Amino acid sequence: MPHLRIEYSPGLARRADIRDLCSAAHAAMVEAEIFPLAGIRVRAFCADHCIVADDHPENDFAACTLSVGAGRSKEDLQAAGQHIFSALQDCLAGPLASQHFALSLGIREINPALSWKDTPIHARLKKED
């Protein structure tokens, strides 16, 4: 269960290709080699209404949250997080070059006793290997 949620301001879609951002994040998650391919999800959602910092009309943001299942070491998660964050930074180099953009990534670990799943995708991908 490595699920990356990207919430972004409406103006970012005019400054960056959101599909490319999702693709870069997905590739980085695969490259991290600690997440099962069948569990990887990358979702992006535009915040229709938002105020960023001083409410300057050029302000934009991308706030990313990676939810993962328990069981990975802190060091592995830090390395994967840094790899994913670097991919996001590369993809968003244009907006990051301005003084009107904020990028964040946080990782949260899901308690397995409080998480339910029914995912036939895992079985299908195992058969295809």
Describe, in plain words, how this protein is organized in 3D.
With 129 residues, this protein is an alpha/beta fold. 38% of the residues lie in helices and 25% in strands. It is built from five helices and four strands, in the order βααββααβα. Strands 2-1-3-4 form a four-stranded mixed β-sheet, covered by helices on one side. Helix 2 packs antiparallel against helix 3. The chain is elongated, with a radius of gyration of 16 Å. It starts with a strand and ends with a helix. The model has no long low-confidence stretch (mean pLDDT 95).
Write out key terms for the chains shown.
single chain, 129 residues, alpha/beta, four-stranded mixed β-sheet, 5 helices, 38% helix, 25% strand
What would a concise description of this structure say?
By secondary structure, the chain is α/β, with parallel strands linked by helices. It has helices spanning 12-15, 18-31, 74-91, 93-96, 120-128, and strands at 3-8, 41-46, 60-69, 101-110.
